[in-house]
Amino acid sequence: MSLIASAVKDLSPMFAGRLIQPNDAPYNDARLIHNGMIDKRPALIAQCRGTADISDAIKLAKSLGLEIAVRGGGHNVGGRATVEGGLMIDLSLMRGVHVDPAHKIAWADGGTLWKDFNRETQQFGLATTGGVVSSTGVAGLTLGGGFGWLMPKYGMALDNLRAVKLVLADGSVTRATRDDHSDLFWAVRGGGGNFGVAASFEFDLHDVGPMVFGGLVAHPIDRAKDVLKFFRDHTQTLSDDVFMVAALITAPDGHKAIGLAAVHCGSLADGEKALKPVKGFGSPVLDVMGPMPYNAANMMLDESFPKGGRCYWKSNFMPTLSDAAIDTLVDQFMRNPSPLCGIVLEYFHGAATRVPVDATAYALRDQGFNVLINSQWLDKADDAKGTAWCQGTHQSLQPFVGARRYMNYYSDDDMTDAGVSSAYGPNLPRLRQIKRKYDPDNVFHLNVNITPQ
Ligand code: FAD
Question: Going by CA atoms, what residue is nearest to atom 21 of ligand 1?
């Protein structure tokens, strides 16, 4: 019997979740994540049911000398939720959400998806900032920032954190809050999975919905440059109630198009007034902007990101959007190799951008345009084309970009020294010191890694 099989046999009677080895039937499903390009084979997958399982899985990995990967929602395109030949701590069985409506607080387990979270909190007309695609994990998104429809009004997802329960590198369990282990609480709000495995999160909630005013309008691609100029100018007038994105996309009928998506999180009447200029601009070929459930707003983009699609992403932040940048964006989009490819511009403003850069580890507090080159395709034979288009587009946008980058959008090859600096900016030295205190041996290194100082 191998060392791993013997350790699994010893731990199994206590372990509440599942310990899955390569020959076990669930292995193939369990090892796959959102990005179909990631084809790693862990030596062991520990599907945990609680903090004790996580703690035992960490100790087991260390005793066997296995690298540790941590899977929350498994959405990260860089694929660091899994590991070749190591131990994957998989939290997909831990998706419980508990809401205290009287105090407007929610607790979410470490493997919760945003669709689980929104479903429970919306029972009470409550929400917090979360991702715009419902199958994204709460954990990875929040630990690395977390923007969505509520970001201008209520900040990043991590700005709404009250506490995080973490299993540390030695297997011990700690609760970090503003008052308790405040250094760790500062670090996990933006430092990603570097400091431990987040077993659960405690969030502040806000009154949102259940109906909001939002949706999509789309214009033909030959209007793309004018629509992007309108988007640039109109975003400068937005109140904190509105989050808005523009996307160069291919419609299901095969026509290329430019879409504008927005959600207003206040009253329906205010939302209708605020989004009237968006609906009124030009001659849209599609207008599905109106009253909709907040839950539906968080699912309206889901189909554009099929599970198992092969993904390669690059992103940059543009403080301003010049005419020359718009020309480049549209020209590059026209060359894309797959109808699933897109370029998305997310306008960051409001509460999230008013938080000082050193208030949390998360450093991208600028106002401006987060630009995602979302290269996606289905056939393995198209890997080289899909990757090359994304890299070429990224290169051509360099004259227009700022210093910071959104680390949750990193591909595996972004996790370099330069990528680490762009992600953490001036907060990196303090993060390194806190890493030395809580994870001196860098047990948790499959992330945008902060090496201990
Ligand atoms: P995973 O791949 O499971 O994990 C990502 C990283 O976090 C890994 O390093 C992992 O080890 C670590 N990690 C995961 N869980 C834990 C845990 N419990 N404890 C400690 N470390 C952990 N971002 C936004 O801000 N807003 C969006 O609207 C948005 N939309 C997206 C839509 C799609 C289709 C995709 C693919 C991504 C989107 N993202 C968005 C990016 C998203 O924030 C990141 O992909 C994020 O890492 C996903 O979190 P996850 O838990 O699903 O990821």
Answer: 193
